[in-house]
UniProtKB/TrEMBL annotation:
PANTHER family: PHOSPHOESTERASE (PTHR31302:SF25), TRANSMEMBRANE PROTEIN WITH METALLOPHOSPHOESTERASE DOMAIN-RELATED (PTHR31302). One of its GO terms (biological process) is lipid A biosynthetic process. This is Metallophosphoesterase. GO terms for cellular component: membrane. The lineage of its organism: Bacteria, Bacillati, Bacillota, Erysipelotrichia, Erysipelotrichales. One of its GO terms (molecular function) is UDP-2,3-diacylglucosamine hydrolase activity. It comes from Candidatus Erysipelatoclostridium merdavium.
């Protein structure tokens, strides 16, 4: 088995961001994820439509896009990606490709 050491900078790559909660017992510093397409629909001032779009994307309800703090040690970044799901289009959600420079 692989050991995860507190002394290392540990990165977890997962597809579905909400599953990051089940890894909080491990000493990950950064979680990188996608899956949500940023909710795919984001209309300002109409949260009901946005919530319906997000809820159709299982396992991406808590962490939809951007940076979040899972706990005092771990952050998660959810990329909106460049694709779509269910409907071929996006509304109010900019596609993205992220580049990370990690300096230790």
């Amino acid at each position: 088995s692989t050991k995860i050491y507190d002394s290392n900078y540990n990165i977890l790559l997962i597809h579905e961001p909400d599953t990051a909660d089940s890894f909080q017992e491990y000493p990950y510093d950064l979680v990188l994820s996608g899956h949500s397409h940023g909710g795919q629909v984001n209309i300002p001032f109409i949260p009901a439509i946005n919530q319906k779009a997000i809820s159709s994307t299982n396992l991406a309800k808590n962490y939809v896009s951007g940076m979040y703090e899972l706990n005092s040690k771990t952050k998660i970044y959810v990329n909106t990606g460049i694709g779509t799901t269910h409907v071929s289009g996006r509304l109010g959600v900019v596609p993205e490709i992220s580049i990370f420079h990690i300096y230790l």
